[in-house]
Every structure is written in C-alpha cells, then in structure tokens.
Amino acid sequence: MSVTLRSCHLKDTIALQVTEQKGDHAGHTSTKAYVFQWNRNETKFVYKTNSFIGVPSPIDGKLYKEVKKTVWSNAPEDIPNFLSQFFNWTDSIIPDDAKYSTVVFFETTAGVKTSHYSSTDIRVEEDQIKPIFPAVLSYMNQSGVRFLQRESQLIKGSNEGIDGWISLNYLSRTLLNTPNTVGSIELSSTSSQITFAVAAEDFSNLRSGGVLVDFKNGNSWHLYSHTYPHHGIDTMRGYMEDEIRRTSASSKRVREAPNPCLPTGFNQTKVYSDNYVLTLYGTSSADECQQLIDAVINITDCGAANCGPGKVYQPDMSDISFIGFSVINYAVQFYYNTSNMISVDLEDLRVRSRKHCSAPLDTLKNVYGNTAYLDRYCFYGLYIHTLLSDGFNLKAFNSSNVINGVAVGWAPGAMMYEAMHVADNFTYCGDLSDCSSCLYHTNCGYCEASDNCMPAYTTCDADGWQKLESGGFCKSGDTPVRFIIAIVIGAAVLQIILTVGLVVSYRRWNAKQVAEITHMPLLDREDEEDI
C-alpha cells in the first residue's frame, strides 16, 4: 500500500523508504529513511546520491539517511502506532509553521504478499485491503495536516511498471537522454513488469501497451509497458507446486511427491485450501525442474515477429539495454556474489543455475553455509532465465537493486513523478481577501483551485520564507524548495509510501492521447487497467 502526502508550501523533499530485512523471520523490517532536499527547478531533474548524506551541495542538495527497526501488523488498530513513528521523524525536519499547509492523500496497490506461497492465496484482493483504509484515513485526519480523502485510491499493476522505469532512469541519469534510456524488468512476488521507451515515430504503430508519460516541463516519453499479473516468482512457484500435485499426487492417499527444483535432502510441507497436506521432497534434477517451469510459464509461438509470454504483443527492443531488479537482483547477487551493478549473460546464468539445481542440500551448505532461501535459488535461476530469455527474447541484462545509493522500485518513481509534475489543480492565489479567483501573484503561495485557497502573503522578508499572523508562506524571487516523504514497506509485508510535496496532480499518464492511440477508453489513475 502506498500513502502519498503532498503539500502547498513545503520547502524540501523527503523520501522515507522501509525495506524488508532479508533473513529476518520474526516479522521485523529494516527501515531506511532517506531525506532528499533540493531546490526544485522545473526545467531540470536533480540527481541525488549517498555521497551527499548530510553534506550540503549547491547542485544536488542534501540526502539524509536513518535506519530503524519496525514491526508490521495487519491489525487496523496497530496502524496509528506504525505510522506515527514516521510522522514523528518527519516532524523533526518539516518546520512547524509549514505543517498546516501540508495536504495529504494516499495511494495503495492491491498486491500484498501473504505468508503462503500457493497460487491460490498469493494475492490479497481489494476487499481484504479495505479494512486497513479506515485506520489509515483516521490517522491522517488527526495528523495535523490537510487530508483530502477524495483522493484516496487503489492503483493498478500497470502503474508499477511505469513508475519503476521512471525510478530506474532517474537514478541512472538517463531520464533526459531518451535515446539512451534503459528498459526495466521487475520481478516481484506476484507479478512481473517490462517497460521501455519506443521512438516517437513508432509509438502510433503500437498494437497495445502504449503510454505517454508527460512531466509537463518540456519532457515526455513514449513507453511500451506491460504487466504480467501471474508471472511473479512466488505465484509461478505456486503454480509449479500445483502442477506437481496434479501429476504426482492426484489421489488424496498420496502424501508425498518429488520436487525436482528442491535439493535432495530438503523436504517441504504444503497445506492446501482443501486441508490436503502434501510433503514435497527434493530430487536435485535440473532437467525435470526446467520441464515443470516450461509447463506453467506459458511461452508459446505467437506467430508474430515480437511477442512476450502468453502471446502478448511486444514491440522490437533489440537495441535497448535492460536492467532487472527486485527478485531478479536477489538471484543475481546469489549467483554472482555481488551487490553492485553487474552485466549478466543469460546463458551463463542458466549454466550456473543448472549446476546449483544438480547439487544435494549437503553440498550446497558446504559451499554457501546457512544462506537464507538456499532451497529456492534453483527455481529462481531457471525461472528468471526462462522468463527473460524465452519470454522477453533477451540475451543479456544488467542488474541492481540500488543505484546511486537509492533503492530502485515503483515507489521512488512515483515520488519523483509527483515531485516534478506541475499540478493542474494547483495555481497561485492573488486576492488575499477573496481567494476564490486563485489568480497568479509573484509573492503568493500555491492554493487549490477546486477547494478553499490557502492563505498567503503579499510581502516577504529578504531572507525568504516568512510566516505572518494571517498564516501562509511566500518566497520572493526564488523557486521554493520542496519536501517529499516516501515510505515503502518490504515485499514480505505491505507497501506504504508517504510523499509530501508541492505541485502534485492526478496521475493520468496523458491518458487521452494513449486512448487515441490504443483505442482504449479514457482511464483515470484510480480505474486504470493494463493496456
């Protein structure tokens, strides 16, 4: 779930990211808080790296970092305590006189990873997330900031791919160099997303998947993006285990079955929704594991020059360099023993994976010790090779989960888009005695055209920001600095983004132009479907 905070008059940008601590099975997450501070320039993007932690820079601003331990609970009554620790942290950074003008809204995704890995329960549906909403809304209403409940919305998986592409290229410093942008491939627990830029002259010829991303500051990108909602690593592993049950344990009298993707010496017990209990024992067979993956991944000849899994149309991407992240990078870190950006040849990954798949558990432990999830990397490696090589027609890719000190993912991309996007529903207030006209005034703060105007000033002191008795802020002559806060919970629990910032708008991805190109109905952010 993501919660996005936005503001009318804040001066800096803060990003707070909560990520899962790998190998911690006690329900703890490692909370990494990043504070981005920069002078916003509507014609340029500002890049931030961890080299600027706590150190002012006239170009990149400052990046602060804080690490905490947190415990997530699905109980709605625990939501206030969980969120309060982040608001308490931001309270120490955001000036008191700016908090009154902080406007809050939130976005959430429907995909929440459960504690099981069966394909039947891997995805929590919208009606199961809804009980969390009232608790979040109640806290926001009492947080001391303006909360616009009408902007609460559930976003679709298609936005995750686009936001991930923005994050990847923003942090890679390729966002403003369209010919050299990189494609993104994200593999999560429940889904996979592929997104890449296409030439403007080819955009109108796309049969599906075309999205025009417009930052409204002179920068826009023509993208192809597609989400495969059932091709996540754990969803596919669940499908594979269901296939084992179907072919090897069709009778309830059968309580054991071989799993060739597990190492010999490792047993796994599964409890199905019909209360059937099945023990899967490893047999360390690379060939048979590959056969199971081929049976469930649904890669067939589509009869077209370019297509992805499930006969999904995919434009030519032969000249594009891709970066794989999320679960893809976890596997890369394991097989190549590095957390740095690395170029991976898919054939080499296949060879390494098959070697791993052929070894018994004792041999793997002698090599890797007590590495977490040691039993899963056979399936991870072969599945990733099959998806990227046979599914997406790649021969090689780069991989990293961290670029310039910031974790890659859809949440940072969403934050960056919102921070750089000039809002359609925000404008300048002019007449302070009657703000209904919301006219431009050089010394007046932003206000919301569709709501009551925020109070502002006609004068500022020489040093910049000033608060007067009537409330509000102004800054004469300079572009305001922004605050943005983003919180992301790790994949094992829930995702939350808190974003605070100025001039943010509804995320429509220029939907009208997309509709004209793809012959799809006009879609708003809250009801957007995959195209």
From TrEMBL:
Belongs to the GDA1/CD39 NTPase family. The keyword Membrane applies. GO terms for molecular function: GDP phosphatase activity; ribonucleoside triphosphate phosphatase activity; UDP phosphatase activity. The chain crosses the membrane at residues 483-504. GO terms for biological process: nucleoside diphosphate catabolic process. The active site is at 160 (proton acceptor). Keywords: Hydrolase, Membrane, Transmembrane, Transmembrane helix. GO terms for cellular component: membrane. InterPro entries: GDA1_CD39_NTPase. This is Uncharacterized protein. It comes from the Eukaryota.
